[in-house]
Amino acid sequence: MCLAIPARVTELGENNLATVDILGVTREVSLDLTPQAAVDDFVLIHAGFAIEVVSEEDAQITLDLIKQMPELADEMA
């Protein structure tokens, strides 16, 4: 099973890389599949790639569900 996690883009870097925030944890991901993503956009992250830009509302719904599953939230941290 694959799971894509919503994250907020906090910084755009070189070579189509971006820093994202996932529940307070920052990661560097590739924007190769979502070159339109901008700072403060929410993107779905899978295997180190942003695979889709999503609305803040949709991202928050998923993040709220993750927070309800402590074992999953712990893995994100």
Structural overview:
With 77 residues, this protein is of the alpha+beta class. The mean pLDDT is 90. 25% of the residues lie in helices and 40% in strands. The protein has helices spanning 56-67, 70-76, and strands spanning 5-12, 17-22, 25-30, 42-46, 49-54. The two termini are 20 Å apart.
List keywords for this structure.
single chain; 77 residues; alpha+beta; five-stranded antiparallel sheet; globular
Strand order of the largest sheet: 3-2-1-4-5
Helix/strand/pairing category:
alpha+beta
Task: Describe the largest sheet.
Answer: 5 strands, antiparallel
β-strand number: 5
| Helix amount | 10-25%
- Which residues form runs of ≥5 with pLDDT under 50? none
> Kindly state the mean pLDDT as a whole number?
90
Q: Which outline best applies? A: globular
Summary?
With 77 residues, this protein is of the alpha+beta class. The protein is 25% helix and 40% strand. It has helices at 56-67, 70-76; strands spanning 5-12, 17-22, 25-30, 42-46, 49-54.
Secondary-structure map:
Elements: E1 5-12, E2 17-22, E3 25-30, E4 42-46, E5 49-54, H1 56-67, H2 70-76
Antiparallel strand pairs: 1-2, 1-4, 2-3, 4-5
